[in-house]
Design brief:
36% helix; Rossmann fold; globular; alpha/beta; 247 residues
Length: 247
Amino acid sequence: MLTSNEQLRYSRQLLLKGFSETEQLQLKQAKVLVVGLGGLGNPVAMYLAAAGVGQLILADGDSIDITNLQRQVMFHSAQVGKNKAEIAKEHLTNLNPEIDIEVIDEMLDFEQLDYYASEVDLIIDCTDNLSARYAINLACVNHKTPLISGAAIRFEGQLYIVDPRVDNYTCYECFYPKDKGEPALNCSTAGVLGPVLGVIGSMQALEAIKLLTNKPVSTNKIKIFDGLSGHWQEFNISKRTNCICKS
């Protein structure tokens, strides 16, 4: 059961049709790993903490840089040089002391990802490099752990959900095969508008809450957001015959 304080804290969620104390308890009992506490990880972690996800694991070995402050809205100037995950924990604990937060203040290797994929209910990929995305994807496929992947550059963002628990699922490598190589551009070279990351991060958090409370989500589709027009496009992704998710 929820405590009286939890009932008050989450009262606006509990007013929703189809979102009762049962769903709130599902969030309370959930364990989620957020990999990357940058422009995507900031809104993801804040909304999940505020919504009452009971256990959050925050992983990032990077330190706050002044160039981050244009889009990483949990951080401020006095925190430059400090570890992102540690500072995120401080912020989120103040936001919601009812939840448990674990910090991993280093970049996760595959062995660590493989371990955590077997321990959590969901992984949210908020990283900004392709090798990390592939490693997270593989760990989730190996342990049939749902994955929500987001990315953004310039005025555009994308959202992709992998759910190895369902039949005929596709994975991140189906969408972006390894033989394509690293993208030519990234945020450091091409730039990104901060609110685009906010849109994609908020969508990742929304889809996470839906997954954790057994609400329908769209899998095997890539969703593309154009920040200049405000339009979304959605494309079906087919399973590749030689992909790691073929079994």
